[in-house]
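Table S2 (text version). Query chain:
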Amino acid sequence: MEILTLGEKIKAKRKEKNMTLKELAGDRVTPGQISLVESGKANPSIELLEYIAQKLETDVDYFLESEEKQASKICEYYLNIAEASLSSENFLRAKEYVEKGLHYANEYNLLLYKGKFNMVLAMLTYYDKNYEEAQQYCLVANSIFLKLNLIEDAVKSFILLGKISIGMGYYSSAVNYFKQADSILSENYFEDELLKARINYYIAMSNLYLGKISQAIDLAYVSKKRLEILNDKKAYADVLILLSLSYAKDGKIKEAIEYSKKAKDILAELDSKKNIAEVEDGIGEILAKYENYDESFLHLSNALKIKQEINDSTLPETLFKMCDNYVKIGQLQKAKDIIKEIQDKLGYEDHVYRIKLYKYLYKIYNIENDKRRMEEVLIEAIKYLEHTDYKKQLADFCILLGRLYTDLNMQDLALKYMNYGLDIYKQLGVI
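Corresponding structure-token output:
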């Protein structure tokens, strides 16, 4: 996509219609005059422009549209694709379109889109756990949204700042950000049940981390009541994104914007459903800490059902929480069944979840005092991690295996794995 001058627009439309300069000029002007207009060396009168528009069967408003207006339309398209890609977890495409959009937003000083694109960058870096970088992008977006009095965007940026603070371990700061979001909604009489539900939920989670369990439970339930379950439309949205990209490549900006906006709107609904699952997950976690396991399982099951419906990538997190509950109440066979279910869902590249799976299996077999199974799990984990970049975790499992062999009085093997683990720690600079 590119910004066209008036002359370039006329020339492009003439070429599109397969017209010569002479044919476009007709009896009204000379081909040379049309050529001067197309090259930008002469400006047409409004009467001539209307004549050209009529000959090219084009609305004169198209030719009168400023470069800034064109840039805004292009930014709108890039933003829609970036946000839709973010929702569908296509992070590489989201980043690509943010960079494209920021080029035009900066060149034409489009403040609104500067804020919007910085917000997408904040979310991308947040998902990548680069919290300090995410905070910087989000603060830029937040200041722009407040300056432009964009209530909903400002609230969402405060929510993200709160989530970033949680990621950094600054729970009191997180609560303050969430309360600022809530205050803006109240001060502006802005009615959005989903936003209010999310704010209540995140304050609840912050209170949980601060050890304020009863407040966390109360706010989590308030959040849950506000949420409604929406239908899964991800596949349809993906088709719309494909259509939008196709139209964009064909130079049809109007159709590209239309389909990208539809995709974004549908995926916004999908995000609502993800938020519901997140709340249910959080309530389950809170209740487990309060040792109310029956209620915890109920909410975790609700989260699991929603995540299964939308094929959410964080589904194993919910299963691990259920497994943790079963371990705590001593139902180890059910915990192992959950682990088997997780194992069946994981791909080879799901390193983080697979490491977690090995840790849970080791923990369960340790409780059962099944030394043979403990050894099998640790050896399998070590063999798997040797082919990954997770060297710290590899060393951890080596040390665990070394200790196990020490308990089994197998000193040669104990020394082998202890030294293996210690060597990795030294390479990493841990010791």
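Notes on Table S2: The chain has three domains: 6-64, 67-256, 346-431. Residues 6-64 form a domain with the 434 Repressor (Amino-terminal Domain) fold (CATH 1.10.260.40).
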